[in-house]
Every structure is written in structure tokens, then in C-alpha cells.
């Protein structure tokens, strides 16, 4: 038990050290990108640094499998050079038993990543998008989804408008039961527009069966509205922008994702991408365990046997290959080519089985 705790503690410290190195590198690289994108003299260095720090958690979260495989490589190379693995094997413990400690730690790291780091990444991603849009366009458009339907906000030089729709089609081009309330730059509400349906066209909304109330003229909903068959309402929103906002499951906490999927289905959007992402996140701890097993299969030999560099390179390449296959399965799942559960869980399970086969072959021949 003492040996297991020792290996687990050593693996955890190495993992934290590599995380720190990647954090510093990510901040520096992303800061260069933000400095290239924004004018520091206009927005200020503080806002650029804030954007960089908001984006860093997402970058680290995406690099988690690489960090785990590098931590495993560093652990077993260190243990091999100090002959600690030789002592453990001489005491009657097989190499496979020695892998249990880092594998368990990687499982715990994966669970903490999904349950704790994922909501943090989602919150920082949303804040990054909001602040980035604010610097680019002054925050003139916003989108949200609730139990009451779809809410949109658009702005312009003459004022802004709040738009509510009961539902939409899959590609977010046609909206039903739509209500638009327009506001002036300095005044209160000016017009209330209701329509049975609205279609996004180039440069605006094409409303059908329209009722309009002029609120700034002292009229209310009880007054007779102005009725028109078709009205074009100017807009800067596009179907692509709406789908993009509702199509980024990484910006939603895993705890809120099931209810958001239900809301997407009720609103008429396709939630397949979010379903695949949810299952991929749930399978993340299993995939991190596979990374540990792959790295340990090639780096548990004593360094005096040589070819350490080739073993490290091979383990990293196999890890990257498994990660690529996992991403490819995710794309197939999002496109409907394979079932959601198969896309999310088949690559991690296959990776674990492959890694166990490699480990047994390397250790027991």
C-alpha cells in the first residue's frame, strides 16, 4: 500500500508540474494572438490579459490527454533511472501492479475534470465570447434559450430590438410565433411587432401575417394594430450566427447540458452535437486511463536497455493516434453516421483494451 501511495503522489506532482508549464506556455502563446487581434492602445493591456486568462482554461482542458501521457512518461522514466522499478519487481510486484497507482490517479483527475473543470471552462468560454464580441461590435447582438422559447437581441445605429420566438426549424432559418419589441437609442419601447412566422433573409427578417402596435404613440395591445401580410424587418443576425451560438456545447456546463438538450429539442434545433459532446465528456476519465496505460507500456523498461527516446516517441504517437481516432468518431457521431453512444464510448474502451494488450505483451511477452 505504501508503494502505491508513493507512486500516486509522485505521478500527481509530475502532472501538476507539467500543467504549470503548459499553463505558462498557453498564456504566452495566446497573449501573442490577442495582441495581434486587438489594438492594445485602444482597448488596454488589462482587457487583453483578461481575455487571455479567460481562454486559457479551455486550452488546458483540450490538452489534458497530452498532459496525462507526458506525466506518465516522466514518471516511469524517472522510476527506471533511479532503479525503483527494479526494486519493486525484486520485491515480488509485477509491473502491471505498479501501473494501478497512476491509473487510479488519472481516473480521479478525469472525474474532477468533468465535474469541476468542465463548468469552469464553460463559464470562462462564455465570458470570453461576450467580452470578445463587446470589443469587436459593442455587444450589439445576443442569443439565449429558455423554457419560454428563443430570445434574441440585436442592435444598430438607430436603437436595438428584443426578439422572441416560440420555436424554429433545424437550420435556424424559419421562426414561428415571433414577437419583436424595438427600442430607440435614448427612448423606451417604440414598436411591438407580432408575426405568425419569420424567415431570415439577406439583411433582415421576412415576417408573415404581421400585427404592429406603435407604443411610442400611446397605443397599447388593446388598440387595433396595423395589419400587413408581409414586412421586412432589418437585422444583422444570420442563421449561421444563430446556429454557431447554439452549436457550441463546450460553452455549456455538463451539469446543465441535459436540460439544454431538452430545450433544443423543444425549440426545434438538432441536439445531436450536444448529445455526442455530453457522452464524450462522460467517457473522458476512461480515455485518460488509456493514455496512462499506453505510456507505461513503453516506458517501464530499465533505461540501461536503451532506445528510451524511441519508446517515448512511440507512446506519444500512439496517444496522438488514439486521440485522432476519438475526434474522428466524434465527427461521425455529430453527422449521424454512427450512433451517439458508439461514437463516444467505443474509442475509449478500444483504447483501454489496446493499451492493456500492449502492456501485457511488453511485461509478460
Description:
This protein has 2 domains: 2-136 and 266-364, no CATH class; 141-235. The chain is 61% helix and 18% strand. It has helices at residues 2-37, 40-43, 45-62, 64-81, 84-90, 95-137, 239-246, 257-267, 272-282, 284-299, 308-334, 340-364; strands at residues 141-146, 149-155, 159-168, 174-184, 189-201, 204-214, 226-234. The relative contact order is 0.11.
Shape: elongated
The description of the largest β-sheet is: 7 strands, antiparallel
Query: How would you classify the helix and strand content by structural class?
Result: alpha+beta
* Sheet with the most strands: spatial strand order: 1-2-3-4-5-6-7
End-to-end Cα distance: 27 Å
Report mean pLDDT, rounded to a whole number: 81
Number of separate helices:
12
> What series of H and E elements makes up the topology?
HHHHHHEEEEEEEHHHHHH
Amino acid at each position: 500500500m505504501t508503494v502505491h501511495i508513493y507512486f500516486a503522489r509522485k505521478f500527481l506532482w509530475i502532472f501538476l508540474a507539467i500543467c504549470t508549464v503548459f499553463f505558462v506556455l498557453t498564456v504566452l502563446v495566446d497573449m501573442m494572438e490577442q495582441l495581434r487581434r486587438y489594438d492594445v492602445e485602444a482597448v488596454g493591456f488589462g482587457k487583453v490579459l483578461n481575455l487571455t486568462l479567460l481562454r486559457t482554461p479551455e486550452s488546458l482542458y483540450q490538452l489534458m490527454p497530452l498532459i496525462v501521457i507526458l506525466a506518465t512518461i516522466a514518471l516511469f522514466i524517472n522510476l527506471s533511472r533511479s532503479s525503483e522499478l527494479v526494486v519493486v519487481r525484486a520485491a515480488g510486484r509485477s509491473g502491471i501492479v505498479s501501473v494501478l497507482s497512476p491509473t487510479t490517479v488519472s481516473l480521479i483527475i478525469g472525474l474532477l475534470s468533468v465535474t469541476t473543470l468542465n463548468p469552469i471552462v464553460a463559464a470562462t468560454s462564455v465570458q470570453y465570447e461576450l467580452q470578445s464580441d463587446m470589443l469587436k461590435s459593442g455587444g450589439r447582438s445576443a442569443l439565449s434559450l429558455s423554457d419560454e422559447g428563443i430570445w434574441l437581441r440585436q442592435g444598430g445605429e438607430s436603437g436595438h430590438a428584443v426578439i422572441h420566438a416560440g420555436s424554429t426549424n433545424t437550420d435556424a432559418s424559419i421562426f414561428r410565433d415571433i414577437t419583436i419589441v424595438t427600442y430607440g437609442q435614448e427612448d423606451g419601447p417604440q414598436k411591438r411587432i407580432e408575426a405568425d412566422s419569420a424567415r431570415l433573409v439577406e439583411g433582415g427578417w421576412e415576417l408573415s401575417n404581421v400585427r404592429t402596435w406603435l407604443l411610442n404613440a400611446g397605443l397599447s395591445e388593446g388598440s387595433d394594430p396595423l395589419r400587413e401580410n408581409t414586412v421586412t424587418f432589418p437585422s444583422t443576425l444570420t442563421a449561421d450566427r444563430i446556429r454557431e451560438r447554439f452549436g457550441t456545447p463546450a460553452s455549456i456546463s455538463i451539469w446543465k447540458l441535459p436540460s439544454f438538450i431538452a430545450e433544443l429539442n423543444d425549440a426545434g434545433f438538432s441536439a445531436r452535437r450536444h448529445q455526442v459532446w455530453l457522452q464524450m465528456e462522460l467517457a473522458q476519465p476512461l480515455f485518460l486511463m488509456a493514455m496512462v496505460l499506453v505510456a507505461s507500456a513503453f516506458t517501464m523498461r530499465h533505461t540501461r536497455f536503451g532506445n528510451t527516446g524511441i519508446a517515448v516517441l512511440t507512446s506519444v504517437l500512439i496517444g496522438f493516434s488514439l486521440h485522432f481516432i476519438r475526434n474522428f468518431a466524434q465527427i461521425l457521431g455529430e453527422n449521424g453516421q454512427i450512433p451517439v453512444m458508439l461514437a463516444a464510448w467505443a474509442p475509449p474502451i478500444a483504447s483501454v483494451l489496446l493499451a492493456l494488450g500492449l502492456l501485457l505483451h511488453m511485461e509478460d511477452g
